[in-house]
Specification:
Blueprint lengths: L1 H24 L2 E5 L2 E5 L3 H21 L2 H9 L3 H29 L4 H17 L18 H25 L1
Helix pairs in contact: 1-3, 1-4, 1-5, 4-5, 4-6
Length: about 170
């Protein structure tokens, strides 16, 4: 069981690195009187963010004992590892489809912006207490007012709460 948890932790670390990449290097937009235009990224800011990411992963890598990790991979039942990865990806895909549905139901949004906002919200939720960073999704939807974006995020979280209540009631 410990080896399955180790593999799942490694998968989550790589997955969050991908989310962080989209958040750091994703396009940013500015609202100029009703028109949305793409802003050029500051090269110095990108370099600083990249160095910060490298530093964080270096510290994490130094904290991991390589022998324990190799031992965990040798004892791993790969069937459970693959099932865990597949279920994680399936849940992520369902959440993305749900977010796309919610955004299209209440406002207009481009698919690339919806995907960027989804991953950005997850990334911001990692570094904020209680996942409050998910409200930051609205900053990555350029055609949607911030109040509408926050409302859509709250609706998304209420759907999650409703599903949890239903499945806990069944169990």
């Amino acid at each position: 069981m410990r080896s399955v948890i180790s593999l799942y932790s490694l998968f989550l670390l790589r997955f969050f690195r991908l989310r962080l990449y989209f958040t750091v290097y994703g396009a940013s937009y500015e609202n100029t009187g009703g028109k949305v235009k793409k802003k050029s990224a500051n090269p110095l800011l990108i370099i600083v963010k990249t160095l910060l990411i490298i530093a964080v992963f270096y510290v994490v890598a130094m904290k991991i004992n390589a022998k324990d990790m190799l031992h965990a991979f040798n004892d791993l039942n790969w069937t459970f590892g693959y099932i865990g990865i597949a279920l994680s990806l399936a849940v992520m895909a369902m959440n993305l489809v749900k977010w796309r549905f919610i955004v299209h139901a209440f406002a207009q949004g481009d698919l690339s912006h919806i995907i960027a906002s989804f991953f950005a919200g997850y990334t911001l939720a990692l570094v904020t207490p209680g996942g409050v960073g998910e409200l930051g999704r609205c900053f990555f939807l350029p055609n949607i007012h911030r109040n509408t974006g926050v409302t859509l995020t709250i609706i998304d979280k209420l759907f999650n709460l409703l599903l949890m209540i239903i499945f806990v009631s069944i169990a």
